[in-house]
Queue: 2 jobs
Job 1
Amino acid sequence: MNNPIGVFDSGVGGLTVAREIMRQLPGEDMVYFGDTARVPYGSKSKQTVLKYSKQIVRFLKTKNVKAIVVACNTASALALDEIATELDIPIIGVVKPGAKMAVENTKSGNVGIIGTESTIKSGIYNDYIRELNPDITVVSKACPLFVPLVEEGLLEDRVTDDIVGRYLQVMKEYKVDSLVLGCTHYPLIRNTIERFMGKRVTLVNPAFETAKCLRELLTEQGLLNDRKKKPEYEYYVSDGVDKFISFADSVLPCHVTDTKVIDIESF
Ligand code: DGL
C-alpha cells in the first residue's frame, strides 16, 4: 500500500525513531509531525498529553497515513492506549517494543528504565515488563536534564558525563544488565551512557525495536510498501522551522529541505 506512515513526537527527538524507520523500511513514505511549540511533554499531565496527541492524530489522518507511530515515549506512555481504541488504522508506540527487548536481554533479572518524569511516573514500562516476566526487578529513574543537554548539542561533554553519572549511579547499585533508553533523545548520548555503565550492560534503543515491530505489523496486515522508488518524506512542526531543520540535519541520513508550520490547535 502506497500511503505514507505518520510519525509524531513532542518535537525533534522523534527524529531518532524516523531515522530507524528510514533505515529499516526504505520503501515507505513518511509524514513527520514535531510539536515544537508545545514541547516538552515529559513534564506534562496525562490529560494534556492526551489532548495534544489526539489533535496530532487528527492532523495525520488528513494526510491519509496508513499507520501511525507514536515516536514520543511520553505520549506512548500516557496517550497511546486510549487513542488506539478510537482509531481505524494501526498505531504503535515505542514503549512495548522497548520493554520486550529489555526482558529478552536480561540475564541478571534486573532491568533499568530511564525516561522523562511523566513516563517514569506512569509506571507503564514496569507494567509491561512484569506482564512479560513477573520475576524481573525494574529500577526506574527520571532523567529530566538529558533532553536539554542533547538539544544544546552537548553530546560529548564533561557536563553530560557528570549528569549521566549522577542519574545512573543507582543502575550500577542495582546491577542492572539491560537498560532501556526510554526517551527519544537518549540514543543520541548512548556513547556517554555506555562509557559510564560499561560494556556488559545492554542498552536498549526503543526506536530501533519500534521500526522492527512496524515492519512486522505492516507485513502482517498486507500494508508494506517495498517498491524501489525513492521514498518521500514530509515534515510539519508547530513552531521554529529553522531549529527543527538544523537538528534534523544532524540526526537524519538525508537533508531536510521543506518543513511547514501548521496550527495544530485547529485540529
Ligand atoms: N519526546 C519526549 C519523550 O520521548 C522527550 C521530550 C519531551 O519531554 O517532550 O519522552
Note: Residues 232 and 258 are 11 Å apart (CA to CA).
Job 2
Amino acid sequence: MTHRFSLSNHSHRRYNALTGEWVLVSPHRTKRPWQGQIEKSEIFVQSSYDPECYLCPGNMRVNGEKNEEYNSTYVFANDFAALNLKTPEESSADPLFNMKSEQGESRVVCFSPDHSKTLPLLSIKEMSCLIDTWQEQCLELGRIWQWVQVFENKGSLMGCSNPHPHGQIWAQNQLPTLVQRKQKSQLLYLLENDRNLLEDYTTRELANGERVVVHNTDWLVVVPFWAAWPFETLVLPKFSIQRITDLHPHQKISLADILQQITTRYDNLFEISCPYSMGWHGAPYDEKPHPEWTVHASFFPPLLRSSTVRKFMVGYEMMAEPQRDLTPEQAAEQLRALSTTHYLKR
Ligand code: H2U
C-alpha cells in the first residue's frame, strides 16, 4: 500500500449529500473470491402475450376483475393495496410506541400491452406515453395526497411477482422517511448557500465527467459520488424543475431517450434483462413552492460481478452502514463503455 491516499485504492467513507448517510468504500476488496450464492440469470420473456398473466390485456386478475383490452399504458387500482382510502384514523404519541394510521391509494401501471416489452425495449414514443402516464397520475393523485411515489420493481431478484413490465404508484399524506431526509438536506443546502443542491451537483458532475454515464440536452445520468449499490445511478435534469408534473413535452422526449439509454446499458452490462428498483423523488404536492427540490430518478440494480452474483446488503451494512467494493468511478466507466444498442437487437 502506498502512503499517498487515492480514492480508487484506499478505504474511505463518502457522504451522501442528499440523504445525510455515509457509505464505506473499500476498492481493494473487488478482487476477493466468490464461493457464495449464485443467482438464476434473469431471462427475457419471449412471448408478447401470456394467457396466465394477471396484467396482460383482457385477462382476469386475482380478484375476478378483467383488464381492459388496452393498447398503450394501463393503470388500475392495486387489488392488494398497501395504502387504502378507508383506513380509520388512529394515532399514538407514546415516545416508545409512536404510530399514526395512514390513508392512501395504490395503483399498478402496466407499461405496455406487450408482455415482453421491458423499458429498454419500448420505443421512444411508447416510453413518452409512460412518462405522460406518470405525469397524469401524479397530477391527479397530487391533488389529494401530499406524496406520490412512482416506482418500478423489476426482476425476481428484486422480489417482483410478475414479469409483465409494470410499475406501481403509492400515494399518501405523510412523507416517507427517505423523502423527509432528502427534503431536510436540500432545504439546509438552500438556506446555507442560497443555491439548489442538485443543480449544483449536476453542474459539478458534468464538469468532472468521471461519474457521468450518459447525458443529452436536458438530462444527465451519473453513478452518484455516494452510490451504495454497485451500479446505482441518478437521473438528473439539467434545468430547474421541482416535480415530474412540470415537465414540458420536449423534456419528456429527451427523458424517454435518456431512460432508454440507461436501461439498455443495464441490460448490456451482463447481457440479461437487468433487475433493478427505480423510482422518482420530487417536491411534495403540498402547494408550497419548494425551491430546494430538484426532481430526480434513481436506479438500484442489485447485481455486482455478473448476472448471477448479487450484492448483499447484510452484515456490516445492517449493523453499521452501506459498503461497496467497486468505486462509483469504476462503475460509471463500465456503464459508459457499453453500447446503447440493446444486445438483443444486435
Ligand atoms: P410486483 O410485481 O412488484 O409485486 O407488483 C405487482 C403488483 O400487482 C402487486 O402489488 C398487484 C400486486 O398486488 N396485483 C394486482 O393488483 N392484481 C392482480 O391480480 C395481481 C397482482
Note: The first helix runs from residue 124 to 142.
